[in-house]
User: Fold this.
Amino acid sequence: GESVGLHLPTLSVQEGDNSIINCAYSNSASDYFIWYKQESGKGPQFIIDIRSNMDKRQGQRVTVLLNKTVKHLSLQIAATQPGDSAVYFCAENILQAAGNKLTFGGGTRVLVKP
Amino acid sequence: DAGVTQSPTHLIKTRGQQVTLRCSPKSGHDTVSWYQQALGQGPQFIFQYYEEEERQRGNFPDRFSGHQFPNYSSELNVNALLLGDSALYLCASSPLGVSYEQYFGPGTRLTVT
Assistant:
């Protein structure tokens, strides 16, 4: 069935180091993947997305890698800052004309240590 | 430019009651999706509205219903509330013709006692 999951529930990282958040997905038909950041008391905030025909996409301080062979998605955050402390979710979607629902995983909490 | 707005921020209801949550999409967005997020979990898709019609629905009972108005704003209604309905209810809006790009509001925290 459709499911998105994360390997690590909590990730502690030193300020200035790089963070890597991993996500496994099970639906090989998914063709669009998104990373969201959710701070306490707020809704999920879009970070970066990637289509299934890509292996890598870079944004500002973030890189998403997609490995379709093993159905694995990762988010790399460069030079992690205190403001990066949040819960990170990956979500998947099957692009279609009539409606697009996002399927989310359980989330990984990132704690940045000063 | 205001983002997605939701009201109320918090709500406390009793089992068996009914509740209505409201969402105003980001300017220029015509599609609204609703999600339920239990504490410590990822959001779960409830349904999506486009052109005032429900176009896709997740695995939620008929107690959950919605509506979209001509100005694209939307309501989520939940009847016969259960304790398990306590959650953060998130609204997400999408740009014209790009319903997979979803931008979330701050959510409404519903507590059922």
